[in-house]
Write a structure and sequence with these properties.
mainly alpha, 95 residues, 0% strand
């Protein structure tokens, strides 16, 4: 067992809580399918693909966080222009 693997297994604990290489590969594949820009890019080696998928996932999450922040800011600017009765009607429609 390599030194890196040995350190990882010592940190993980019992053998029942270890994640296998097959499980990691499966999780990377699931993440690959979940990312819009990655759905068609399946020609790389597994290691290169995993590196790219994880990097793209991080970038995609950052983009989504920025979009949420932007939409929250926009909503906070719009809310003062909406009267209470209209707001209550919108909430009732959503529920």
């Amino acid at each position: 067992m390599s030194g890196r693997r040995m350190r990882q297994s010592n940190r993980i604990g019992t053998s029942t809580s270890r994640i296998t290489d097959d499980q990691i590969t499966d999780l990377i594949s699931q993440l690959n399918r979940a990312l819009p820009e990655m759905r068609t890019n399946n020609r790389r080696s597994k290691k290169a693909q995993a590196d790219k998928v994880l990097g793209d996932a991080c970038n995609y999450i950052k983009e989504l966080q920025k979009e949420v922040d932007d939409l929250s800011e926009r909503l906070s600017q719009l809310l003062p222009t909406v009267d209470a009765e209209s707001l209550a009607a919108m909430v009732r429609r959503l529920v």
